[in-house]
Design brief:
Blueprint (H helix, E strand, L loop, with lengths): L1 H8 L2 H17 L1 H36 L1 H8 L2 H6 L6 H11 L1 H13 L5 H10 L5 H13 L2 H24 L19 H33 L6 H11 L1 H8 L5 H10 L2 H14 L3 H25 L3 E2 L13 H4 L3 H12 L7 E2 L1
Antiparallel strand pairs: 1-2
């Protein structure tokens, strides 16, 4: 009992230390913090809002309107046999692959809240329904950093294969259990106007939280760069904190399989964005981080295998160039077609480039 009391009394130390470090940076490097906030605002305006808000709104609309439940009944055999999940999970898995990191966790938490998933099903889905969106990988990383759509297609295909493989593996260890109370309920279609209003309101709340985390970690990343640390340590911290800046720094240093692992892992800023959904589904952080590490390793393996079959050609000198976040609006096809078109993008010939 005394040991527990002593341990409980020391829980304030990490919070106090973090507060002291934050105050020191704010007063010692105010211009650096301000510049980091400006960078975060730029990322939100040029990348996060255009890339995530439409998918968040569409995902909420699918759930509120009843179309997700209808789609789940039509293809219920696929998630039930492959992932041992109810039919409604099919739409969540698809949206997680094409919508970006927080979309899958957000939809999973909502289904669990509506008693359409059991606790174990919700936990499993949170562990693999987390995938970078095509707007980020194809446009920002592929076209913007590597100057190669083929590179972006390989990285995106590796991330998708990693997520699906994680879902299949987790399903093999899942125990048989009765369905959730409302998993087999009748389809209830809602008025499109009501569903759209709910989608916009809910998506606006979510995007504000996401942008707040992006701005905060952009400021933290700017402060980290001021520390007298070796370049390798700064690179590791950049990748761990904020994935966009980290990938931009790592693309010219690390091989593509390592970059694929970093993209699949996500970064602390992304993890904080989905933390409320993990807590709602009862997912332990150590379990979540273990799954992220496993997914990152699988993504690296898939990327290495794809590079052997489809040698990638990139312009290494373009790594330091500007990001191109706006191109997603004309390069992302429809949801299902995007996964099929990935193969065609890989087969695209790009001459006069150096082989990575």
């Amino acid at each position: 009992m005394r040991k527990r009391t002593a341990a409980h009394s020391l829980r304030w130390i990490p919070s106090a230390a973090l507060f002291a470090v934050a105050c020191w940076f704010l007063f010692r490097y105010p211009e650096v913090c301000a510049e980091g906030v400006k960078t975060g605002l730029t990322l939100c305006g040029t990348l996060v809002l255009p890339a995530l808000f439409p998918f968040l709104a569409v995902s909420v609309f699918l759930m509120r309107s009843g179309l997700l439940q209808l789609f789940g009944q039509l293809v219920s055999a696929v998630p039930r046999r492959v992932f041992r999940l109810p039919g409604e999970s099919a739409g969540v898995i698809l949206m997680a692959l094409v919508g970006g990191f927080p979309v899958g966790a957000s939809m999973t938490a909502q289904l669990y809240k509506e008693n359409r998933l059991t606790p174990s099903q919700a936990k499993r889905m949170c562990l693999f329904c987390m995938n970078p969106g095509p707007a980020f990988v194809l446009s920002t990383v592929g076209a913007g950093i590597y100057r190669s759509m083929r590179a972006g297609a390989i990285l995106y295909a590796a991330a998708c294969l990693s997520a699906l493989c994680m879902g299949v593996v987790l399903a093999r260890f899942a125990k048989k259990e009765p369905a959730a109370p409302k998993a087999l309920g009748p389809v209830r279609l809602t008025s499109p106007l009501t569903a759209a209003a709910d989608a916009v309101r809910s998506s606006a709340e979510s995007i504000l939280q996401i942008c707040a985390w992006v701005i905060l970690f952009s400021a933290v990343h700017a402060c980290v760069l001021t520390l007298p640390l070796p370049s390798r340590v700064q690179l590791i911290l950049s990748c761990f904190l904020e994935i966009t800046s980290g990938i931009r720094a790592a693309a010219g240093v690390l091989p593509m399989p390592a970059v694929a692992a970093l993209i699949a892992f996500g970064g602390l800023a992304v993890h904080c964005q989905i933390l409320p959904y993990l807590q709602a589904c009862g997912v332990r952080l150590r379990t979540f981080f273990a799954a992220r590490a496993a997914g990152a390793a699988l993504s690296a393996l898939f990327c290495a295998a794809l590079l052997r079959v489809f040698p990638c050609e990139v312009s290494v000198a373009a790594v330091g160039g500007e990001l191109v976040p706006a191109a997603y609006s004309v390069s992302v096809p429809s949801f299902v077609a995007l996964l099929l078109m990935t193969v065609l993008l890989i087969l695209e010939v790009e001459p006069n480039r150096k082989v990575c």
